[in-house]
Design a protein that fits this description.
Layout lengths: L2 H48 L1 H4 L6 H32 L2 H21 L3 H4 L2 H29 L7 H27 L3 H8 L1 H5 L1 H12 L6 H8 L7 H8 L1 H10 L4 H17 L4 H29 L1 H23 L4 H27 L4 H20 L1 H8 L8 H19 L18
């Protein structure tokens, strides 16, 4: 063998090794980026339930202040469809990586600004107005994060393990929720005056470190070969949203309905947190630790559900998990309102175990409905419109909840109905776990 052929063989082997590592690297990059981005997003939800009614909405009665704080949480979801259109367009036009770097910077800066924002005592009504505007920027950022990370990982993965690797984006989201809660647990234990004056700011100010770490991790990831291929062939859609709505509108509607399952997440992370602590006297740390346990359960279970989906298909795992959530919401509330710490922990672990099934599958399930040239836009717009219901679930739940120990029943019925609608929509989708990545979405194109 000549030196030239030996060198060529070595170069080929090195290139193949690098290519084989890309799916794992893409999954890691998506995991870390989503974890750190959604740390920022979730600390707002915790603060909206526990802190903001007393800090930014203190000029009204406590009940109204709570509703206004939850409304400000939901407003972040209003911005998400707008962000989905804008960021989806550029993600399908200039690439996944560039847009994902932008979403990190936008989320980190807006969260840091919330931590520095003077409260209502200092600047009056300007405080909640500015807070709401910063929440809108958080929503714009979040609109492009998951869809971009899903596209990036999916398009770097082999056909046989797309669900597994793509599920790590949502595992990163769960890790972000864990990180946010762990930071809030010691903060929430501060004396009330210290908590409301400066303690609550600590999690938001830490977003500066979050931004730096996430940016350094993500900036070295190459663009996906799938997007590079359509760009080299000059097949990039000039107006991806137009192509999406022309060719894929049934899939967009399907994703919107499927995404109603996300109401379970905000119900437990925001509404149940405030409901149990204010109405049933459950200690704040108890509910926060229950959230940690639930998210740790999901973090462990999600890759396993995704492996199953790579074997038997996306639909059985997704639909089974969604209908399981609809049933389990009722024992969940019975346990959470019992006042027993053991029961509350059991409720969180039980519900999150089943919720982790659709949560693990949707990144691949939704993205595989679309071809590459509109995948970012399709996933982003469909999910973010569906997530509107999730964003306002805490506010809707607070309006529906009745008096007495069983006042939660209308809330459980509402969210269970969203779960059933999600399952029905998923049942109409095409099964894609055996479809080659180059052929995804082409049946309807």
């Amino acid at each position: 063998m000549t030196l030239t052929s030996t060198a060529s063989l070595h170069a080929s082997s090195s290139a193949e090794a690098t290519q084989n590592k890309l799916p794992k690297r893409a999954a890691l990059v998506s995991f870390v980026g989503s974890m750190l981005e959604y740390y920022d997003f979730f600390i707002y939800g915790t603060a909206a339930a526990l802190i903001f009614p007393k800090v930014f909405f203190a000029n009204v009665d406590p009940a109204t202040g709570t509703l206004l704080a939850l409304l400000s949480f939901g407003i972040g979801y209003i911005a998400r469809p707008v962000g989905a259109v804008i960021l989806g367009h550029f993600g399908d036009r200039i690439g996944r990586k560039t847009v994902l770097l932008f979403t990190l910077v936008l989320m980190g800066c807006s969260t840091l600004a919330i931590g520095l924002l003077p409260d209502a005592k200092a600047i009056g009504n300007a405080a909640p107005v500015i807070l709401t505007l910063l929440r809108l920027l958080q929503g714009l950022s979040a609109a492009g994060e998951q869809s971009g990370a899903n596209s990036l990982t999916l398009e770097h993965s082999a056909n046989s393990n797309r669900a597994f690797f793509t599920s790590w984006t949502l595992s990163g989201t769960q890790a972000g929720a864990i990180l946010a809660t762990l930071v809030f647990i010691p903060v929430s234990s501060l004396p009330e005056d210290q908590l409301l004056s400066w303690g609550w700011r600590i999690p938001f100010l830490l977003s500066a470190l979050v931004l730096l770490v996430a940016y350094l991790v993500r900036r070295t990831m190459p663009e996906t070969p799938v997007f590079a291929d359509i760009k080299n062939k000059d097949q990039v859609a000039r107006f991806p949203v137009v192509a999406l709505l022309r060719d894929y509108w049934p899939d967009v509607l399907r994703v919107i309905a499927c995404a109603l399952i996300a109401t379970v997440s905000t119900l437990t992370a925001v509404f149940a947190l405030g409901y149990a602590t204010s109405k049933f006297g459950v200690a704040r740390p108890t509910m926060l630790w229950a959230g940690v346990l639930g998210n740790v359960t999901a973090l462990i279970a999600q890759p396993l559900w995704a492996l199953l989906a790579d074997k038997i298909g996306r639909k059985p795992v997704f639909i089974g998990g969604v209908l399981g959530c609809a049933v389990l919401l009722f024992p969940y509330f019975m346990l959470v309102t019992s006042g027993s710490t053991t029961a509350i922990f059991a409720a969180a672990a039980m519900l999150y175990l089943i919720y982790s099934a659709p949560n693990a599958i949707w990144p691949s399930f939704y993205a595989e409905m679309f071809e590459a040239r509109v995948r970012y836009s399709g996933t982003a717009i469909g999910t973010q419109l569906g997530f509107l219901a999730a964003g306002f679930t805490p506010l809707i739940s607070a309006s529906l909840v009745g008096e007495g120990p069983n006042g939660w029943i209308p809330v459980a019925i509402f969210v269970a109905g969203c779960c059933v609608a999600s399952a029905l929509a998923a049942s109409t989708a095409r099964e894609t776990h055996k479809v080659d990545i180059a052929d995804l979405g082409k049946r309807r194109a």
